[in-house]
Amino acid sequence: AIGLAAQPWQLYAGVGVLVLGSSLVNPSTTGLISLYAGATEQGRVLGIFRSLGALARAFTPVLAGGV
Fold first, then answer.
1. Pairwise CA distance, residues 13 & 4, whole Å
2. pLDDT in tens, 4-56
3. Which domain covers residue 8, as residue numbers?
4. Which of 11, 25, 29, 54 has the greatest number of CB atoms lying within 10 Å of its CB?
């Protein structure tokens, strides 16, 4: 929806919603993953989770540009 903004205020509102959602979801999912991972495997599991998130943030613009 951000790409369809016709006015600057719509862009700012869309980015604000995106930032708010991201700031709520990222800590929550990290906390849940740390709760479900065992004490000996927390580092590995959280490292994999954050690495996959970084890869997704890197490749999403490339994939979205192809659409």
1. 12
2. 889 999 999 989 998 999 999 999 999 999 999 988 999 999 999 999 999 99
3. 2-66
4. 11
* CA-only gyration radius of the chain, Å: 16
Best CA proximity match to 48, nearest among 29, 63, 62 = 29
The pLDDT of residue 29:
94
Task: State the Cα–Cα distance between residues 18 and 27, nearest whole angstrom.
Answer: 15
Phi, psi of 57 (to 5 degrees): -65, -30
Q: Using CA atoms, how far apart are residues 34 and 43, in angstroms rounded to an integer?
A: 9
Long-range residue pairs from 6-15, CB within 8 A, at least 24 positions apart, any chain = none
Domain count, the chain: 1
Mapping DSSP onto H, E and C, the string for 17-65 reads HHHHHHHHHHHHHHHHHHHHCCCCCHHHHHHHHHHHHHHHHHHHHHHHH
